[in-house]
């Protein structure tokens, strides 16, 4: 059925009215965010990267690292050189990261390089009760739009997608090496001290025997 120009205008008006209140987000349907899981069960690490540069600017406005006037009337924010440095040095960004990259029962600290595009943002966790399987939660930027997702990779070829309602995944990490290293060092120190004691005892026995022989020779 062919619509008249007047009918097309009415349809266009309905479409504009329906979409007028929908903001134009950065790139929720563009390149996905990525994350690399590393470390051991006591000190897991998550290095997270933005998918697109406009997402850096969009999140920077959201956390207050960039002024609100950077956002256009339709809700879009476009990247400008230096936006990544402004976001990386923002305490609000560090707080945001810790709210959206979590391990229950573990404390995290954020290391954000000036080059958020190349270096990403690393969260280092301290887990007082380590386990060989660690459940890591990631929902970066999903509060801005539910279509954002993070594709993650871990040790021994493990892969996971944080998307939609899937906000957590269990990773198999190596056992903490701190205790083993400490025990090894202790054994090495013990072995060294034992060698010193044996050498000292042998020397004392040799000197005592020699003096006894000299004393017997003088008496005869």
Task: Describe the fold and architecture.
This protein is 38% helix and 21% strand. With 220 residues, it is of the alpha+beta class. The strands form two sheets. The chain has a six-stranded mixed β-sheet with strand order 4-5-2-1-7-8, with helices on one face. The longest helix has 42 residues. The protein is globular, with a radius of gyration of 32 Å.
Layout of helices and strands:
Blueprint: H1 5-19, E1 33-39, E2 44-49, H2 53-63, H3 83-88, H4 91-100, E3 101-102, E4 107-112, E5 121-126, E6 133-138, E7 150-153, E8 159-162, E9 168-172, H5 178-219
Parallel strand pairs: 1-7
Antiparallel strand pairs: 1-2, 2-5, 3-6, 4-5, 6-9, 7-8
Question: What's this, in brief?
Answer:
With 220 residues, this protein is α+β, with helices and mostly antiparallel strands. It is built from five helices and nine strands, in the order H-E-E-H-H-H-E-E-E-E-E-E-E-H.
């Amino acid at each position: 059925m062919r619509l008249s120009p007047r009918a097309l205008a009415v349809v266009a008006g309905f479409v504009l009215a329906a979409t007028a209140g929908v903001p134009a987000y950065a790139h929720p349907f563009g390149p996905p965010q990525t994350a690399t899981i590393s470390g051991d069960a006591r000190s897991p690490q998550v290095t997270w990267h933005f998918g697109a540069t406009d997402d850096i600017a969009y999140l920077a406005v959201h956390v207050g690292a960039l002024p609100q006037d950077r956002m256009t009337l339709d809700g879009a924010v476009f990247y400008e050189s230096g936006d990544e440095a402004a976001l990386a040095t923002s305490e609000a960004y560090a707080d945001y990261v810790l709210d959206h990259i979590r391990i229950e029962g573990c404390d995290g600290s954020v290391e954000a390089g000036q080059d958020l595009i190349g270096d990403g943002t690393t969260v280092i966790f301290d887990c007082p009760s380590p386990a060989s399987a660690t459940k890591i939660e990631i929902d970066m930027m999903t509060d801005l739009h539910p279509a954002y997702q993070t594709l993650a990779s871990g040790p021994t070829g493990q892969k996971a997608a944080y998307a939609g309602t899937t906000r957590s995944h269990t990773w198999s990490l190596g056992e903490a090496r701190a205790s083993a290293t400490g025990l090894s060092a202790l054994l090495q120190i013990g072995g060294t001290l034992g060698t010193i004691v044996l050498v000292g005892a042998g020397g004392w026995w040799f000197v005592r025997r020699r003096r006894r022989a000299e004393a017997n020779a003088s008496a005869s």
